[in-house]
Design a protein that fits this description.
The complex is a heterodimer of chains A (252) and B (572). By secondary structure, chain A is α+β, with helices and mostly antiparallel strands. Helix content of chain A is 41%, strand content 23%. Chain A has 2 domains: 75 residues; 125 residues, Cupredoxins -  blue copper proteins (Immunoglobulin-like, Sandwich), CATH 2.60.40. The chains are: A alpha+beta (252), B mainly alpha (572). At the A-B interface, helix 1, helix 2, helix 3, strand 7 and strand 9 of A face helix 4, strand 1, helix 10, helix 11 and helix 12 of B. The structure holds copper (II) ion (CU) (2 copies).
Chain lengths: 252, 572
Amino acid sequence: MLRRFCIRWIPAFISWLVAPSWVFAFSRSGARVWLPEGISTVAPEIDRLFYIVLVLTSVVFVLVQGTLLVFLVRYRRRPGRKASYSHGNYRVEVVWTLIPAIILIWLAFQNQRVWSKVRGTPPPADLEVEVTAEQFAWNIRYAGQDGAFNTQDDVLTINQLHLPIHQTILIHLKSKDVIHSFFVPQFRFKQDVVPGLTTHVWLSATKSGQYEIACAELCGLGHYRMRGFLTVESPEAFTAWLAEMFKEQTAS
Amino acid sequence: MNRSSHKSPGFVQKYIFSTDHKTIGIQFLITSLFMLFFGGLLAMLIRWQLGWPGHSLAFMEKIAPEGMPGGIMVPEYFNMLFTMHGSVMIFFAIIPLLVGVFGNYLIPLKIGAGDMAFPRLNMISFWLVPVSIAIVCTGFFLQGGAAASGWTAYAPLSTTMGPGQLCWIIGVIVLGSSSIMGAVNYITTIINLRAPGMTYFRLPMSIWALFITAIITVLATPVLASALILLLLDSTLGTSFFLPAGMIIDGVLQPNAGGQALLWQHLFWFYSHPAVYIMILPAMGIASEVIPVFARKPLFGYHSMVWAIMAIAILGFLVWAHHMFTSGMNPALGTSFMASTMVIALPSAIKTFNWLGTLWRGSIRLTTPMLHALAFVSMFVIGGLTGIFAAASTVDLYLHDTYFIVGHLHYVLFGGSLFGIFAGITFWFPKMFGRLLNETLGKIHFALTLIFFNGVMFPMFILGVAGMPRRIYDYTQYAHLAHVGGLNRMMSVSAFCLGAAQLIFMFNFFWSMYRGKKAGENPWQANTLEWATASPPPHGNFEKTPTVYHGPYEYSVPGRKDDWLPQHQPAK
Ligand SMILES: [Cu+2]
Ligand SMILES: [Cu+2]
């Protein structure tokens, strides 16, 4: 009986295990497909929460699937053995309701701590930027010297967002037409940009370099190419760039 | 019921405009299996573009000269493909398969009734489905193609689209009315037509699940229908329910004023989150039905299973905005919807543990329906657990609208609903057609489906973690996605194999319908009432209305020779 079971099911389990290894057979570069580097002050906290959930769910996953497999082998049909007659066990059910309940409540509190930081009242800003999305581009507006928007000295760019490192930045998101979503994977957040609403998000970058802004909400046929470029640089380099852009703008 | 008083109906009455719930159930089955196949073909095209972006698929030029000129897909066509894949699968495959097929076929049989309470309404509710399919699919032949704003049809984008989008809106309204008619019928039938002795707590779990599903349908679908009507007015008559002032589209300032784009999302998800449960509760019911039969053991915790379904139904109406954590709604709402979503994980966990408890010390037979039911449990666990990532609103800020979500929803809707559907079809096929499906073909189909399903869907989680947005025609231009091509190709190959494996199912289905072994009344030695009559059951279902003496899961009762005890047989 056991032999027949093995002959029948072990090939199935093996092919099951083979499936994931296809990943490597097909992957040419061999680069790790996982979280991109986090470059904002909140990224480590969001990642920490991600890994907490990953560990919790993995433990439950292994326990449940393992139990299932063990039961399938142990309680498979065998001649002469009858199934036990039981409609359940009240005490067991209470236990397996309470344990996940406690874990989920704990997780909700963990999540809320980070949520209120990321989405609560923003800290005082060092720099404000206005980003207006349209099909299919990001219009960026800096307030310029006077610190006020919609004045003579505003600096405007298309798809070029430069931000000074280690400063608190407040971004005002607006849309001209349909809904878009401002997504910088390295910042670990996205925010939909809704026509008729101005949404405020804050962030502080912790690593300089070149990154990309993706549109994460379907916005029409050019959605896939609605890509912006983000440069995080030192405050000096940023000021110089802004002055340069202003010069170009007044010259033309 | 005296069957001789029915005069034998003509062909049209018997097979086309039939009011017999069994014929209607089978009509639903054939229609929605066909749409399942069609939706799968759309998915293959999506996977072609994602696996080999911009490569030519020569034969498609003949089928879609505008969408794939020279066999190379254009972005509009890609948007249309995933929109229609989602819409076809949800509206024309999963919901009709679970609710239309099993609701119609099983409810009267399992409660011991001769037919539905309103047979004619039932017939109309079926015939509205092909009408709806025809309307939605007309879009394929119109200028600009079918709907292309996602199955979620977010305003304002959906109001700026061509005639295909209007077809989609009207078609879904028609389908909604069909669902409502069906649901009213199910509720009435279950309340009024139960056989003597069939108390509520003797109802099989599949009937409980369909009952609660019908209540959810009646409460949620009208909200979707009214939202769709508002969307239609915004698109055609210039109203501004969802359109704010100052929108500039194609360089033209729009005349609208005073609308709220987020209102559409609230209304849409107020239906569509409960709809997730419309698409999973009946599958849970099927699993709860199949597992005890093949474990030869009573269902573990019947009462708590019932309470869990009710809790899911009630809580399901309080969690809709977890789809909107990044939408720009008040962050305080994010907190409350995160909390309610965490709570709704509990009843699902309880159900999972109860299925495991049913297997514990059982005598397990791994037949095809049982394998599908076990895969349902196993895959639904993955779908549920990955839901916790999305429920944690802060993690969702990153994962929302990435492939992680696509993976999650496919583990729920394919890994959950569709394995449940396969379990149901393979389990009740002998009852429906009087013949058994071929077990060997069934097991091969099961194994290939399980392997290749995971081959397509599991990597989606990894892609999501790597930050790949969903609904992206060409991901290769993004620097952070430069290295995901290999994984995508592996998924595409798995998808094609998954599609091919379904041909085995199709063959088995139609071959066994005529050539399968005769099933007899009760091939699985099961307890519920549908097995107490001929296969297929005659018009009117039962020779004599059965009387019910006990619950549906009396297996391996001590002191009895047989290890089953049918509901209509007294214990002594
Ligand atoms: Cu966009
Ligand atoms: Cu939901």
